Amino acid sequence: MSSRTRNQKDYQTILSDLLGTGALYADPDFPPVSTSMYFDGRIPSRLGRIVWKRPQDLYKNPQFMVKGARRHDLDQGYLGDCWFVAAAACLATGHKKLFEKVVPPDQDFDRNYAGVFRFNFWWYGKWKEVVVDDYLPTNGQQLVYCSNKERPNEFWPALLEKAYAKLRGCYESLHGGKFQDAMVDMTGGISEVIDLRERDKLPPDLYDLMMRGFQMKSLMGCCIFRPKGSTQSEVEMANGLYMGHAYSITAFQQLESTQGVVRLIRMRNPWGRGEWKGPWSDNSKEMARLPDNIREKMNIRNKDEGEFWISFEDFLRNFDEVQLCHLQVDAMIEELEDNKTKQNWNVTVYHDEWIRGVTAGGCGNPPDQLLYWNNPQFVVELKKPDDINSRGGDCTLIISLMEKEEKDPGKVAIGFDVYKLKNPNRRPLNETRAPQNALLLARRSGTYMPYREVTRRFEMPPGCYVVIPSTFKPHNEARFMLRIFTEKFAESSVMEENDDTPERGDVPPVLSPKDFVSDIFRKHCGPDSRLDPSELQKFLADVSEEDVRHRMNFNIEQCRSLLPMVDENRSGRLEFQEAKKLWKETKAYREVFLQFDKDRSNSVDTYELSTLFSKLGGRFLLLLRDSTVIGPDGFPVTRPVLTSIVRRYGDRNNRISLEDFVVVIMRLINSSVSTGPHTTFMFFILFSLSFSSCSLSMMF
Questions:
Q1: Beta strand pairing call for 242-243 and 307-311
Q2: Separation CA 668–CA 686 (nearest Å)
Q3: CA distances from 462 to 223, 421, 422, 600 (A)
């Protein structure tokens, strides 16, 4: 059996095959080699010599899990994935059913052991099974990454970490990240971030809101930002906390004292050591004064195992950010603040992307403000107000935008705007339609941040809205998932430029009546009175220079593409009438092209292609085809086709030349003639490019 065939099978099939042979699994896609640890295969010297070993080679009695999972089972190793370890510790603390979905308990080292284990992650909208072998990186004696220091023969933490590393590419991909991202990947929940530095914007009852969210099973973590300019990944503070480090929030407790109610938060350092040294720490005078029954209830242990209590006031003074993952939409901070209780939510999911030269328009800052309208646009129509506690008949709208990370997570700042339409017609907004629509910027996602997910909750009156997600800078390519939550069912769709109509005042190009083509044709044709590709190249150069006083320099490959599209008798050469027809069409396309080539550089910005194609409608096309497939609204080019065009013909500066444009439009028209109006299947076959944008409605 080939490794490729085996890798395509699921866990149960692999296990059955191995048990029948007695062999142990070796993962062909994530082998025990250096490139599984680091993308370039260069292992840092601080790790020393790495030896990949199976658990049975380290301990006589390896265990997958000992008496259930606990938050203390996970201790971070020599990998900067505190965010992941902290998130996994939270999941293990109080979410048994969800934890067992991520870490199936029916696997161990005793019964049916074959060196293969499985884990499940919610990966951009779908649960994905990740199968790994149990080879783990060691220094020859012990694990170098995540382990259980108290019970070193327990291996579910190390194997879970390995599965997550495989999902993301390698162990190095886990170095640095966000707590909430790992939680979303293990739950499918919604992330939320609270910036504690903006004290004036914090809800006055933040502690109560966090505690209620915790009671509703929201997973919580927090972090202290690393100082600017620091070369260290973590920086220790005098009070025992670390900057550049993430912590789990594992409990809340309020105590009565002579000075009033004390609000406490329990936290855990994923290192399994390193604790807060201030008030309410393990050995503080405040803790020493507590009765034994209260200390026992709070599970206070006077040893450095990484878990500690801290007052809410000290928490606010020291930490910069709270990171949350809500398993229920109702558990969001703003939802709790409004004291709402909802049962079911409708969610629509889109998968889309920002493509350089097509849809990567940026946030609209000058001088690129016009590019903004090229971003993907999604319309949502809120028809009925919420049933419970709606403010003056408003509708709750929750929008979650998630970047699909590649090898460099968190490098692209993302956000979105929400506009209300006065005259909705399901057509994309642009610099013309936006003011015509009396466009109202209803809401924004806030400051663009390099977070994988940005989520905001809004209350809006019924109406038609457009959501425009974007990167902060134009031309940044990234794929994304957009989730739109509403209490009531809301109609939602992608806005496409397929039905754009020319603006009034557009004058169709006028074809030159001058007929001199035959002389140039006879000059270049062969002895058979026909043009081959090299002869066609010279013909087009001369005829363009004579007719429009501009020499069009088609290269030989472009001519080889053009020739069969007008070679009606399939001879492989062009007769005079075919060559004349080709020039007639080429000149017409050039006239439209020049409307956009303002600087006469013989190229246009690829962001303008959609509008340019819309100009190819109306009366002038009737001059080109006996049976035109292009109506007065222009040529309807979908975004997948537009993406194919840009990636095949656009240059590094998002420009497409006049000659390439002629080839493109000829291919589009000819494929539509052969397959029927408004279809471009041949174009996809020619370029073998794929793109997907779909929506899925479900109950959350």
A1: unpaired
A2: 11
A3: 38, 11, 12, 47
- The catalytically annotated residue of 269, 374, 375, 498 is 269
Q: Amino acid identity of 1?
A: M
Query: How crowded is the C-beta side of 479, counted as CA atoms within 13 Å?
Result: 10
Ordered DSSP codes for 100-153: HHHS-SS--SSTT--SEEEEEEEETTEEEEEEEE--EEESSSSBSSSB-SSSTT
Our answer to whether residue 82 is catalytic in this structure is yes
What are the C-alpha distances in Å from 453 to residues 399, 465, 473, 488?
10, 21, 17, 24
The DSSP letter of residue 499 is T
Q: Quick check: 553 pLDDT over 90?
A: yes
For residues 49 and 145, what is the distance between their CA atoms, to the nearest angstrom?
14
Task: List all residues 6 or more positions away from 205 whose beta carbon is below 8 Å from its beta carbon.
Answer: 337
Exposed, middle or buried: residue 631 (CB in 10 Å: 0-12, 13-18, 19+)? Answer: middle
Two tokens at 619?
């009366």
The answer, yes or no, to whether residue 630 has pLDDT greater than 70, is no
pLDDT for res 192: 87
Least confident of 54-58, 327-331, 590-594, 679-683: 679-683
What's the alpha-carbon Rg for the chain, to the nearest Å? 31
Is the preceding peptide bond at 367 cis, omega within 30 degrees of 0? Answer: yes
Residue 594: exposed, middle, or buried by beta-carbon count in 10 A (0-12, 13-18, 19+)? middle
Q: Which of 119-133, 333-347, 538-552 shows the lowest mean pLDDT across its residues?
A: 333-347
Q: Name the 3-class secondary structure at 89.
A: helix
| Cα–Cα dist 528/241, whole Å | 86
Are 595 and 507 spatial neighbours (Cβ–Cβ below 8 Å)?
Answer: no
> What are the start-end ranges of the E strands in 487-616?
491-495, 603-605
Range with the lowest mean pLDDT among 244-253, 375-384, 463-472, 686-695? 686-695
Distance, CA of 694 to CA of 297 (rounded, Å): 50
Integer Cα distance of 361 and 359 in angstroms: 6
Is the full-model pTM beyond 0.85? no
Instruction: Decide: 184 and 453 in contact? Cβ < 8 Å.
Output: yes
Q: How far apart are CA 399 and CA 109, in angstroms?
A: 44
Query: Would you state the torsion angle of the CA atoms of residues 195, 198, 202, 208, taken in this order, to the nearest 10 degrees?
Result: 50
Options 245, 374, 498, 559, the catalytic residue = 245
Residues 6+ apart with CB under 8 A from 44: none
58: DSSP letter: T
- Pairing between strand 395-404 and 307-311? unpaired
Question: Sign of the CA dihedral 369, 374, 380, 381?
Answer: positive
What three-state secondary structure class fits 627? coil
Which residues, at least 6 apart from 596, have a Cβ–Cβ distance to it below 8 Å? 604, 605, 608, 611, 612
Give the burial class of 262: count Cβ atoms within 10 A of its Cβ; 0-12 exposed, 13-18 middle, 19 or more buried.
middle
Asked about 678 being catalytic, the answer comes back as no
Kindly name the residue from 72, 82, 170, 325 that is annotated as catalytic: 82
* Cα separation, 394 vs 550, whole angstroms: 60
Token pair of 399 as six digits:
């929008």
